[in-house]
């Protein structure tokens, strides 16, 4: 099934959204809860599956739902269709601050592998499935990189990422990356997990015990602020149950609270 040819426009800087323009009877498929607003004549329906294989039976659709359970995504994808006679627009945003990465699947070989929470929306006809990393190191220590989402098709797909996003083209060289900083990469890229260094570096270097190694020829998308890293910093800075702050400047913060009478 060929993907619908949708037009789009991104808005914002650090908290981006993508506005998709649909011709009559065009459809975009999105993660549940990602829609911001939509114009009249656009209807939406939660479905099992991405709609890329309309003849798939009930068993196949249930299998797709089971795969989505493994990625911790919502069980259903939402299909937004323009049922009117004029162009209409629908807008989607990521669940946390960051960038939206538009990818023309036809330009990068019809397939991209991405982190399991990176998919935002795509033109109808895009197949959304999962891929297990076959390397033992990635399987046992890869964390976010063990179960990947696979997007296949010839239309537009949109990923979301935290912080700043960099597009790198590898030409046979290797790149070592924090596992959480990977947004997506071409299937031609070899992905594996390796030890970050010696014991002292692993425990006191602050970069974790393992790094992802991307090697080969293809495209890689990297993010500067994975949501897991942001969440860790927020938790570390949050007040403890006893009321004492664990964040930066906690001594001055404590004096300030005494002055304020807290």
Tally the beta strands.
Answer: 17
Question: What's the order of the H and E elements?
Answer: EEEEEHEEEEEEHEEEEEHEHH
Shape: globular
The CATH level-2 architecture is identified as 4-Layer Sandwich
Task: Note down, in words, how this protein is organized.
The strands form 3 sheets. Strands 9, 11, 12, 14, 15, 16 and 17 form a 7-stranded antiparallel sheet that branches. This protein has 5 helices and 17 strands. By secondary structure, it is α+β, with helices and mostly antiparallel strands. The chain has a single domain, classed as Double-stranded beta-helix (4-Layer Sandwich), CATH 3.60.160.10.
Provide a concise account of the structure shown.
The protein is an alpha+beta fold. 18% of the residues lie in helices and 42% in strands. It has one domain: Mitochondrial biogenesis AIM24 (Double-stranded beta-helix, 4-Layer Sandwich), CATH 3.60.160.
Give me some keywords for this one.
single chain; 262 residues; alpha+beta; Double-stranded beta-helix; seven-stranded antiparallel β-sheet; six-stranded antiparallel β-sheet; disordered C terminus
Write the layout of secondary structure elements.
Blueprint: E1 7-11, E2 17-22, E3 27-31, E4 35-38, E5 42-47, H1 58-70, E6 77-82, E7 88-93, E8 99-104, E9 111-115, E10 119-123, E11 127-132, H2 136-141, E12 147-152, E13 156-161, E14 165-177, E15 182-185, E16 190-195, H3 199-204, E17 210-223, H4 227-237, H5 250-259
Antiparallel strand pairs: 1-2, 2-7, 3-6, 3-10, 4-7, 5-6, 8-13, 9-12, 9-15, 10-13, 11-12, 14-17, 15-17, 16-17
């Amino acid at each position: 099934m060929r993907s619908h040819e949708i037009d789009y426009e991104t808005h914002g800087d650090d908290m981006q959204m993508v506005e998709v323009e649909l011709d009559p009877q065009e459809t975009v498929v999105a993660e549940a809860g990602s829609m911001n607003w939509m114009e009249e004549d656009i209807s939406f329906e939660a479905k099992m599956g991405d709609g890329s294989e309309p003849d798939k039976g009930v068993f196949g659709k249930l299998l797709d739902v089971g795969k989505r359970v493994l990625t911790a995504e919502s069980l259903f994808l939402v299909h937004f269709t323009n049922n009117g006679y004029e162009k209409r627009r629908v807008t989607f945003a990521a669940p946390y601050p960051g960038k939206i990465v538009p990818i023309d699947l036809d330009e990068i070989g019809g397939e991209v592998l991405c982190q399991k929470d990176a998919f935002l929306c795509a033109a109808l006809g895009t197949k959304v499935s999962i891929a297990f990393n076959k390397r033992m190191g990635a399987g046992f220590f890869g964390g976010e990189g063990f179960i990947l989402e696979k997007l296949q098709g010839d239309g537009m797909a949109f990923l979301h990422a935290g912080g700043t996003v960099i597009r790198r083209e590898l030409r046979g060289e290797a790149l070592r990356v924090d596992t959480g900083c990977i947004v997506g990469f071409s299937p031609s890229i070899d992905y594996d997990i390796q030890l970050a260094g010696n014991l002292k570096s692993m425990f006191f270097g602050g970069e974790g015990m393992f790094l992802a190694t991307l090697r080969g020829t293809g495209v890689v998308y990297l993010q500067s602020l994975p949501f897991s890293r942001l969440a860790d910093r927020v938790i570390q800075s949050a007040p403890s149950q006893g009321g004492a702050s664990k964040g930066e400047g906690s001594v001055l913060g404590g004096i300030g609270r005494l002055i304020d009478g807290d």
